[in-house]
Amino acid sequence: MAIRFELAPDEEGGLAFGYSPLLETLLSLHVLVEPKHHALQHGWVRSSRSLSTGLRREIGALSFLYRWTLPNSFLPSARTEYEDFEAELARLRSLRTETAAFELLRSFHDHGGKRQSVRKLLGDGELRATVLRRAAAYGYGPRSAVRLLFDDPAALHTRFVALLETYWEDAFATEWDRIEPDLAAGVEAAGREIAAGGAYPFLQRLAPRLRVDLDDHSFGIDVPHDHRVKLDAGNQLLLVPSVYTWPHVRVNCDGPWQLTLVYRAPHLVESQRAANPPELVGAFRALGDPTRLRILQLVAQKPRSTQELAALVGLSAPGTSKHLRILSAAGLVTTRREGYYVVYSADADRVQALGRDVTRLIAR
């Protein structure tokens, strides 16, 4: 079973990009209650020790709302402008009680995208007993809060919104100011990569867990949830880079909420990885030839085939291919097939990283 999104090669309008302070706030709470699953965020886990005892206790009591499946009501929309935390929180606060309760129950009940009677669900004695039994494993606080979900969902929703507001003010607003520029840069980099090389080369590098089938023109993740969704300009998938989602890839394929794929922000890996000296030597050796420098300039402008490049640099196709192989081995260009032709593009991220890698190496 799997979730798969279909995207025709010429339907890149089916993808949109965004980021959300509210969603990132919730994902950071998930990190705090599952800290050993998130090695990259160990610093944030350590810093949370300075939170007040009361706030830490409330984070634990409501942890069932973000420990496993997240409520879809937190997802941003592909159709709105970039919103600040206050605007997103106001929209969450204004949800109808029935809608809020239905989404808050997601941690314990996978509705599979089917609309069901919230009153009937919350009145199901067997479901209540099962949910309370699971919550009890995490202590009295979560069990008491889960009971509110069945007895007074409006009160639980209000309490949850209050927790988010307090946590934002006490801790996460400053963190958002730090990470938001990197998320914005990740969105811009993704746009450049897709414009230069198409959606599928970008998707193939997005996350190891993401399965990309070029022959089927589809991508998605393998989960116990069977759903196939066709994407186009009228039914867009919002791609959301996140600092706090790794090692997970989070997907929503169910309406009426925004189709969403939340993935690890690329700078998390780029900032940690520095090329070793042999890699740097190989890259600069590849660039130490005027013809290869010219080829890299040309494919940075737009994707080009071997035949087109050969005419532009004044070489035979085999001679041009030799230079392209050296650039490719150094990780400076990427390839994709367009019918009969193999088309080359500059790997913008790798080229930009060279300067940073040299700086790190010298400083080290």
Architecture overview:
This protein is an alpha/beta fold and 364 residues long. It folds into 2 domains: 3-270, no CATH class; 273-363, Winged helix-like DNA-binding domain superfamily/Winged helix DNA-binding domain (Arc Repressor Mutant, subunit A, Orthogonal Bundle). It is built from 16 helices and 11 strands. It has helices at residues 21-33, 42-47, 53-61, 85-93, 97-104, 118-122, 125-136, 140-151, 153-197, 199-204, 267-272, 277-287, 290-301, 306-313, 317-329, 348-363, and strands at residues 3-6, 15-17, 211-213, 218-221, 227-230, 237-242, 250-252, 260-264, 304-305, 333-338, 341-346. The strands form 3 sheets. A 4-stranded mixed β-sheet has the order 3-4-1-5. The chain has a 4-stranded mixed β-sheet with strand order 2-6-8-7, with helices on one face. The chain has a 3-stranded antiparallel β-sheet with strand order 9-11-10. Strand 3 (211-213) and strand 4 (218-221) form a beta hairpin. Helix 3 packs across helix 8 (140-151). The radius of gyration is 24 Å and the shape is elongated. The two termini are 47 Å apart. The mean pLDDT is 88.
Our measurement of the CA-to-CA distance between the termini, rounded to an integer number of angstroms, reads 47 Å
Biggest sheet descriptor? 4 strands, mixed
What's the order of the H and E elements?
Answer: EEHHHHHHHHHHEEEEEEHHHEHHEEH
Number of separate helices:
16
Helix content: 40-55%
Q: Oligomeric form of this entry?
A: single chain
- Summing up helix and strand content along with how strands pair, one would put the structural category as alpha/beta
